[in-house]
Amino acid sequence: MFEARLVQGSLLKKVLEAVKDLLSEAIFDCSSTGIALQAMDSSHVSLVSLNIRSDGFETYRCDRNLSMGMNLATMSKILKCAGNDDVITMKASDNADTVTFMFESQNNEKVSDYEMKLLDIDAEQLGIPDTEYSSVVKLPSGEFQRICRDLSQFGDSVVICCTKEGVKFSTSGDTGSGKVEFCCNIGTLFQTLQKIQKPVMMN
Quick check: 161 pLDDT over 60? Predict the structure, then answer.
């Protein structure tokens, strides 16, 4: 038996929104330690590795390891039926071919149940080697999203250049070019530059 109850159901909705454009389907591996997902997009460019620890749920039960193949587009449609304040519970029996999503409103006035068929997905577990990076930059995900959205008006790709002076995002295309720079000498931005051993440029 598998059952996971998430009080902040909006977190699961945000996680799925972040990966559903990269992956059409994926295997959710459930164990006593939590839920893990690892998959590559169809073009084999991006690797998605997701881990939700069991202690992140209000209640979590997984009697034995369970792999559930899910269509993420269908899962996204189901989760859109949940309110941002709803409690979300996922349930599945050990040998089930379906998974159940239960949404409970905060005042318990409404309870909704949705059942989704599981997929038989043949996927190989990929090993992610430990890597020592020459540059590590941390900034709010919303800020990174805004930069990419703004620069996408001019090009299809973004060049990220990291030096000890700061971080520069740039792009160019047929209609023009754009550039966004973060400087190290600004206190709040300096905290985002965790480690830069040598200049690095990524495209």
Answer: yes
